[in-house]
Every structure is written in structure tokens, then in C-alpha cells.
Write a structure and sequence with these properties.
It is a single chain. The protein has one domain: Isopropylmalate Dehydrogenase (3-Layer(aba) Sandwich), CATH 3.40.718.10. Helix content is 27%, strand content 19%. It contains three helices and five strands, in the order E-H-E-H-E-E-H-E. It has a five-stranded parallel sheet with strand order 3-4-2-1-5. The termini are far apart.
């Protein structure tokens, strides 16, 4: 990697009814973060827009459909789904578990392919991420 290139940082959303997205968005309000990396949140522009409005967070983002469309100096959001969802802060749901899994799956796939350099995972709920396809004992 050339020294002028920033690390491409993948970020999975975790359980969107938890604290993860709020922490991620508030972290990137500090513009110095963009000196270190080009962030890509694996989620949904609709979800981030809802969070920004609910939390009164003024962070501009760049919606993208593929990882290589990420722009340095911007908070990039990779749109993984178009389905509607309901945010219920503090209440884990099967729906938030489903989207946590989709985010984690896409982010780990991008990491395995070398499309991102690092992966940070927001907190997940061990109970609501379980499914027939994904039996997860936990990561802690």
C-alpha cells in the first residue's frame, strides 16, 4: 500500500437497536478520523439517515453500491438492502439480528477478498443473530 493511500476500514453495523451505530457516527464526527482511514459502513443509507435524524447527528455520508466506489475523506455507506425496517432502540429484535448478520457477512466477505484492509464490528446480540443458516455461539 502506498503511504498516500488510507486504510480502507470496513465497519459492520451490529445490532442496529443497540449503541453501535451511534458510536460509529459520533466517532466520524471527528474529521481527524479521515486522516487515518477511508471508512465503509456495511448497512443501509436509509438506516443511517434514520439514525442521524433520531440522534441529531450532522454527518454527511456517501452512499455506494460497491466497495470500490468509496471516496477518501467521506463516510461511505454500502447499501446492502432495500427492505424496510423498524428501529426500536434498546430492544433487540429478530429483524435487527437479521440485518446484523447481513452486514457482518458482507463485511467479512469483502475482507476475505482484500476489498477492505481492516474490519471493525459493532456489538451484536448473541440471541437475535441466530438463524437456521447461522448458528453463532458468540465472539466474547
Amino acid at each position: 500500500m502506498d503511504k498516500s493511500e488510507k486504510i480502507t476500514l470496513g465497519i459492520s453495523i451490529g445490532d442496529f437497536n443497540g449503541v453501535g451505530i451511534e458510536i460509529i457516527l459520533k466517532t466520524f464526527l471527528d474529521k481527524r478520523m479521515f486522516d487515518f482511514c477511508t471508512p465503509i459502513l456495511f448497512g443501509s443509507a436509509k438506516l443511517i439517515t434514520a439514525y442521524k435524524k433520531n440522534m441529531d447527528i450532522n454527518l454527511l455520508f456517501n452512499g455506494i453500491r460497491q466497495v470500490d466506489a468509496a471516496i477518501q475523506g467521506k463516510f461511505n455507506v454500502l447499501n446492502l438492502w432495500k427492505e424496510e425496517f423498524e428501529v426500536n432502540l434498546g430492544t433487540p429484535t429478530a429483524e435487527s439480528g437479521k440485518f446484523a448478520f447481513l452486514s457482518l457477512e458482507a463485511a467479512t466477505e469483502a475482507l476475505a477478498k482484500g476489498e477492505i484492509d481492516l474490519l471493525v464490528t459493532a456489538p451484536i446480540n448473541k440471541e437475535n443473530i441466530q438463524s437456521e443458516e447461522f448458528k453463532f455461539p458468540g465472539h466474547t
